[in-house]
């Protein structure tokens, strides 16, 4: 049995975010080469084993928080003052009690416990 580490890069999509993952050998954010069009990334592990010549892959585990390079955290009050037309975002932030990240791609995502601005 072998545990491998992966990184998943996040991209803006038409309706939902898009992702691409690749195997890496570390979890050092300052050593990551981030694609220009990616707004964030996270790390995760998966156990793999070979049985009778077939590679069996386990479920994703040990997922890190999301890293937002060049992003900034905003409160609902700050968004309301600077971006008053973002009515849905502001309502969601107030209703659900979270701050938001304005990413380097200028999209908004919820800032969750364990997330990082880099």
Brief characterization of the structure:
This protein is mainly beta and 118 residues long. Helices cover 14% and strands 42% of the residues.
- Indicate the mean pLDDT: 96
Low-confidence stretches: none
Q: Give the termini separation.
A: 33 Å
How does the overall form come out from the CA principal axes? elongated
Number of domains: 2
Q: Give the oligomer, counting copies of the same chain as homo and different chains as hetero.
A: single chain
Secondary structural class: mainly beta
Helix content: 10-25%
User: What's the Cα radius of gyration?
Assistant: 17 Å
Q: Note the main sheet.
A: 4 strands, antiparallel
N to C succession of SSEs: EEEEEEHHEEE
Q: Total strand count, please?
A: 9
Strand order of the biggest β-sheet: 2-1-3-4
Estimate what percentage of residues fall within beta strands.
35-45%
Count of separate DSSP helical elements: 2
